[in-house]
Known about the structure:
single chain; about 210 residues; mainly alpha; about 75% helix; globular
Amino acid sequence: MKIEILLSLLLLLTLLRIAISSRLEVYLKMLSFQGLLLCCLSLMIVEHGSTFTMIVAIIETLLLKAIFVPYYLKKVIIQHHVKREAEPYLPNLFSLLIVIGCIIIGMIGAYHLQIAIKEIKMLIFGVGITLILCGMFIILSRKKLITHVMGFCIMENGIFLLTLGIAHELPLMVSLGVALDAFIWVLLSGILVKLIRIEFKDNSIEQLKDLRY
């Protein structure tokens, strides 16, 4: 239980680190670290009766979230010479305060849900809600498309945590469906970044606002 709490707190710390940084390298490291932490949590929480379920959980968290997605996004960043989120809509201090607010909202929401549904693991569920809220915030507050992709990945990590927080046995089909959607979305986003870079000589979404129907 203490290890579970420690891993959950480390997940929250990755969000705080992302909030105060503009460097995409930091985003990638935190995204990879989140995948590693999710792998450890899934090994602790998921029932060990099904070897197949455990293998799927390891593949989804360790191989996909911690290794493949960060590696793929790093290649996209290197190819397009993007190092930092130069001009976010909000300063890092405000981002930090909003992330802290998301943490509070996530924990309060999980607490009230646990009152209604006793099976919920409050801390895990609360961190999952927080990841989803922070992922949405990153998408809304950053200008680079590649940063939006990372925000989506953080949201997907939150959805994965919700499945761990609701039941001890990982809902396999739900988890596989979400992982497949995230995998395809990240791949397509890498292609989209390349096309936008070719057309606009930049990968910011600012110039997309000029598009008209």
